[in-house]
Amino acid sequence: MKRRTFVGGLVLLGSAALGCDKKSGPTGAGSAGGGGRLRIAVIPKGTTHEFWKAVHAGAVKAAKELDVDVVWKGPLKEDDLKSQVDLVQSFTAQGVSGIVLAPLNDKALISSVKGATRAKIPVVIFDSALAGGETVSFVATDNRAAGRLAGERMAKLLGSDGKVVLLRYQEGSASTFEREEGFLEGIKKTPSIQIVSDNQYGGATTESAFSASESLLLAKGADKGDVGGVFCPNESTTFGMLLALQKAKLTGKVRFIGFDASDKLVEGVKSGQIDALVLQDPLGMGYTAVKTLVTHVRGTKVEARIDTGASLVDKANMAEPKIAGLLRPEIEKWLGK
Amino acid sequence: MTTLLRRPWFGPLVALVLVYALFAAVSPDTFARAVNLSTMARQTVVVAIAAVGMTYVIIHGGIDLSVGSVVAVTTVVVAQCLRAGYGPLAASGIGVLAALLAGLVNGVLVAHLRITPFIVTLGTMSVLRGAAKGLANEQKIDADPRGLDELMAAVPPDSWQLLPTGVWIALATAVVAAVVLRSTVFGRHVVAIGSNEQTALLCGVPVPRVTILVYVLAGALAGLAGVMEFSTLTVGDPTDSIGLELEVIAAVVIGGGSLAGGQGSIWGAMVGALLMTVIKTGCTHAGVPNWVQEILTGAIIVIAVAIDRFRRR
User: Fold this and answer.
1) 3-state DSSP of chain A
2) Distance (Å, whole) CA A55 – CA A60
């Protein structure tokens, strides 16, 4: 009877062997420590979102250009803090040449990053900040500048006066807070414009953003023409607001600037329902993060803070190659699917 | 030799050694390093401690699906206590106490309302997840860990301690639990109920009391696992450990636990937990993408259960 357990163990082993042998080749990551070739671990927050695919493409682009190996590995469970902590530890134990990390939490990853630094593995942080630890560089969108861009454009759209609504994303989210503050800074350069609401939050989901948008538009009398312009700081709030504007038949009447892109939002820009979107450059972020780390490892000094920039897309500039590249990053070209 | 072969943990242990050897052969430069052993031991601690409690529950003939939520609640409670100014020991104690109470609720519902453990803990899984989010105001709770993070911090290579404190705590927990299971009246009662509840009842085993105690124990151990989780994360995270219960159950089942009750081994569960970490880490080292790793982990759980059925036929 007990021998069967043993046989079972062997079956189990066989399946493990099958899965792993098969895969170590195609990812091109199996050659650890092979003749001094650099091996860089890139750890995103998740692997299934479009944003992270573009980051992946950028990382692969940099790897091909600089002739290094990139190991792309996100948390097994999307957005799971513990898996990400485990990954940083595993790569540290593995002794990779460097780690590029987008921390899911600005505090929780500090001790693992410190562990990597102690093991003499340099770490570049990208996308979101880490509140401590010794890192080589922080590569991300300057969210405040991106928000300011939106604020200035809004002022331009409204002319000399108008009433503006800001729908915030969520309490405690650092990146969107910066965008919101940047937007307010940008709009305040035109003192005649009035900010009628800046303390409402859309919440985490499109659904919560939609209901918050509906009540906000109603409360501020958007149907009577009392709202001139609206800004939302991320994809879910922008989409929620778009739905609310559509439902209230206010699209085109209210100037609307959003943040980040999705197919639906791009469609909105095309049809004139959204005046502009602020776009980040995830592919450029992945590319720059890996390149920065490699430059550091190869002995050249790098900047401690690198802004990967943000651009405004509207109906007029959609077709420009640079903007089109942001709207449709060359994911297939680099990831080959 | 034959007695060794009879041990429930022997099969999984052989599998563990072979899988380890396999990954060491695939990535010899990185996987076989000593520091990796210590890292893997550290990453197993949470599942291992929770699996000790789960082994009792499964031997008893029950199941506890609320483990992941209990761990999340504990991280939040510990973080909130630290923020409120409690010391690390007091905060951990309160965290474990909260988890113990959750276990008590499970136990009382199973023992006295005669609802099947699957349903009871399916319910408390959701209730506790919600409670964790409420306690944390739906966000991660930052708190100064005040040394609690040291439990799971990597030890310097030349330290006398060899392994992180958390690993020693997990080992000690397993030793005590194994002795209690084998050599105390309570332990024998648990096995007796799991083997045949009616017979145990007729033989004078205080079934309700033992049942409640088993779930209390499982809750408290999940709480201890939660303290370790907090030590790893250094934040209280209400969305943490979703699906952890499945990993813990898998560890117990791989280690020879039978979901029909009456069978299971603490050391088997420890080996099962370690086996899953080795596969997880090995796949990272070998550059296996996540989707393959997920398929692999799932396949292992099914194979383990298949073996369980096969063994008892």
Assistant:
1) CHHHHHHHHHHHHHHHHHHHHHHHCCCCCCCCCHHHCCEEEEECCCCCCHHHHHHHHHHHHHHHHHCCEEEECCCCCCCCHHHHHHHHHHHHHHCCCEEEECCCCCCCCHHHHHHHHHCCCCEEEECCCCCCCCCCEEEECCHHHHHHHHHHHHHHHHCCCEEEEEEECCCCCHHHHHHHHHHHHHHHCCCCEEEEEEEEECCCCHHHHHHHHHHHHHHCCHHHCCCCEEECCCHHHHHHHHHHHHHCCCECCEEEEEECCCHHHHHHHHCCCCCEEEEECHHHHHHHHHHHHHHHHCCCCCCCEEECCEEEECCCCCCCHHHHHHHCCCHHHHHCC
2) 9
Q: Is the Cβ pair B295, A30 closer than 8 Å?
A: no
Nearest to B177 by CA among B123, B252, B121, B106: B252
A14 touches chain B (CB under 8 A): no
Q: Give ∠ CA B16-B18-B22 in degrees, rounded to 5.
A: 115
- Pick from A102, A112, A120, A94: nearest CA to A33: A94
Residue of B nearest to A90 (CA): B281
A94 and B31 in contact by Cβ < 8 A?
yes
Q: Could you report the per-residue pLDDT of A36-86, keeping only the tens digit for each? A: 799 999 999 988 778 888 999 999 999 999 999 999 999 877 778 899 999
**Among B260, B225, B199, CA closest to B63:** B260
Please tell me the pTM assigned to this model: 0.78
**Residue B78 near residue B276 (C-beta atoms within 8 A):** no
Return d(Cα A270, Cα B48) in angstroms, integer: 54
Mean pLDDT by 10 residues, chain B (313 residues): 66 84 87 86 95 98 97 96 96 98 97 94 96 88 89 79 92 97 96 95 95 98 97 89 92 90 93 91 84 82 69 59
Between A and B, how many residue pairs show a Cβ–Cβ distance under 8 A? 182
What's the whole-number average pLDDT of chain A?
86
Looking at the predicted structure, is the pLDDT value of residue A201 above 60? Answer: yes
In this complex, is the C-beta atom of B300 within 8 Å of any C-beta atom belonging to chain A?
A: yes
> CA of B111 to nearest chain A CA: how many angstroms apart?
33
A13 neighbors B15 (Cβ within 8 angstroms): yes
Instruction: Tell if the CB–CB gap between B286 and A23 is shorter than 8 Å.
Output: yes
Amino acid sitting at position A232: C
Q: How near does any CA of chain A get to the CA of B19, in Å?
A: 6
**Among A89, A104, A205, the residue to mutate for chain B (most B Cβ within 10 A):** A89
Percentage of chain A lying above the pLDDT 70 cut: 89
**A108: which residues sit within 8 A by CB, 6+ positions away?**
A81, A85, B140, B233, B234, B235, B237
> What's the gap in Å between the CA of A155 and the closest CA on chain B?
34
- Within the 114-133 window of chain B, which residues sit less than 8 Å (CB to CB) from chain A? none
